[in-house]
Amino acid sequence: MTRSIQAEIERLRDEINRHNYLYYIEARPEITDLEFDRLLQRLIELEQKHPEFDSPDSPSHKVGGAPIEGFTTVEHRLPMLSIDNVYDEAGVREFDTRIRKLIEPGEAIEYVVEYKVDGVAVALVYENGSLVQGITRGDGRQGDDITHNARTLIGLPLKLRGKNHPRILEVRGEALITNPDFAHVRAEQVAAGEQPFANSRNATAGALKLLDPKESARRRVRFFAHSGGFVEPDPFRTHQEFLDYTARAGIPVTPRVKVVTSIDDALARCQELMEQIHELEFEVDGFVIKVNDLEQRRRMGATSKNPRWIIAYKFERYEGTSRIEDIRVQVGKTGTLTPVAHLAPVEIAGTTVSRASLHNRDELHRLGVRIGDWVVVEKAGKIIPHVVRVEEHRRDGNEREFRFPTECPECQTPVVQDEGGVYIRCPNPACPAQLRESLRFFASRQAMDIEGLGIKLIEQLTETGLVGSFADIYRLKDRRDGLIDLERMAEKSADNLLEGIEASRSRPLWRLLTGLTIRHVGARTAQILADEFGTLDEILKQSAEELSAVNEIGPVIAQSVYDYFHSPIGEKIVAELRGLGLNFGAPVERRAAGVLAGKTLVVTGTMVHFSRDAIQELIHEMGGKPASSVSKQTDFVVAGEKAGSKLDKAKALGVKVLTEDEFLKLVGKNPAYD
């Protein structure tokens, strides 16, 4: 019995070492992360039960793979430890229970919740604001010096914005390739007769170990910061402060990070992020929950492998097999043609799946999918179905090849392919499908937030000719009779819709920029443009070169913005919306001189007259900075009903607390303001 246990331990060690080599050195994994985690967990359990067979060279005592041969090996100033994983809500709650045993009874705690980006771990070192070194994680103690490739990371500043940076600043995060860029990389590989990468992480790992930085740059690798390493001197009290500083300094951070005050809120936030995954352009494999307060972290410490103050809440991937009954093409808001597999309904993770996106023409060809094929369909996190592979051995000769259309299926306009890209588009701006989708997005919460204007109503409005453009939405008040005549539309619902449309006229400029569906411009880019130039008229004055000089914009986005606003259609849209009185922004100087200029405010609790998001937007408009955590640098805390630990912390630190009404009085608004 003893000999068989020892043999099992040795077998597991050998298998794990092989998979580590394939993953970290060869960048061609054979198993999933979940399968690897299970192997490692089995080894740990056996070693704990039989310590007589433990060994210092066991992979259970390692963090990752060995440094890649041919690169200079560098010692990490602080170890880059791995994160412990859980796969269900119970595991998250057990983590919270452990955390609370490590702090004083009744001590308040905040968690930071963020996406777990499926990339390659990298540490970047800045000295006096200049990038001096990039290091891979390696085995957690040592990594490879990849400074020559780190300098090519898209969006990463070689010199930090602002002044008074720490003498040494180590920023840790994930190197990654976005899905659109990865599709292009694979298309190039196929065109060159090469075997395409299995996933974007493999492509990223390969790019970072290339000796020629020009070749690495062709992969369009990006970077998202998610934590700090060695910082000297260290001025930060919380993780959120560090992220806020990092973003201000010009380093991209993991998007949609949020601070919460309980594990229930953390789990709710994970669910929100799960529902938003389809909006991302990069791969994630879970969420990260970490303690916000850095002093609390120091007290909690770490094991030999994992910090105690952080957990990875990973989701499993579920598979099912189904048959493709048809492939149809959908037209998106910017004219992109997306092939969608219509499947024989299949039960996966407790839900019925009948459709799966095939993404683009090149992806469809790469998979080799035919109508009638049996395919393996995967759902990540129970909600996102996609085709993994074709079960070629089940083909019977009755399958049919799908020919990607050369004309738009909605308006029959000849389609075009993006120059240097993989996406096929309908170039007709009057395409009915584009109109419907662009109107839907314009009215969505992400953009102009027009309550009541959903896709079903938009279909009626466009079919009846009541709406044919963004501007027509604001002309509906003059077409009220026609609106009332629509199916399921009475006077009250029509008036409610018109009120929502009217309220949207004053939405901040960044929401309008987002809603215009300019290619490559999402909410984050729109906010950057609005903050930099203040007004739409100032944006219109800029050349493509001037736009690209703005941090995080770059030449591709800049050219897209310039082309949109200098096209006949863009000029017409701007002229119409100007005439209809939409908010085109305010000069940067005037905004900076607002009553909250230079002030940092934290909003907490439930508001009566506004949502917390609306309060934060108002803070921004008045020149202030909305923050998510309270510190000595906080000027005001706006506290609503049921304000929790943030209010307690504000009182403890002597930060001035404002009620919602006091805040509104300070900024010169009243409850009727919107």
Q: In which range does the helix fraction lie?
A: 25-40%
Quick check: average pLDDT? 86
CATH class (first level) name of the largest domain: Alpha Beta
Which fold name fills CATH's third level, the topology of the largest domain? D-amino Acid Aminotransferase, Chain A, domain 1
Portion of residues in beta strands equals 15-25%
Give the CA-CA distance, first to last residue.
74 Å
| Shape annotation | globular
3D architecture notes:
The strands form 7 sheets. Strands 2-11-10-3-9 form a 5-stranded mixed beta sheet. A 5-stranded antiparallel beta sheet has the order 14-13-12-16-17. A 4-stranded antiparallel beta sheet has the order 5-4-7-8. The radius of gyration is 27 Å and the shape is globular. Helix 24 (612-621) links the parallel strand 21 and strand 22. The protein is 37% helix and 20% strand. The chain folds into 6 domains: 2-61, Helix hairpin bin (Helix Hairpins, Orthogonal Bundle); 73-314, D-amino Acid Aminotransferase, Chain A, domain 1, CATH 3.30.470; 317-405, Nucleic acid-binding proteins (OB fold (Dihydrolipoamide Acetyltransferase, E2P), Beta Barrel), CATH 2.40.50; 432-504, 5' to 3' exonuclease, C-terminal subdomain (DNA polymerase, domain 1, Orthogonal Bundle); 509-589, DNA polymerase, domain 1; 593-666, Rossmann fold, CATH 3.40.50.10190. It is α+β, with helices and mostly antiparallel strands.
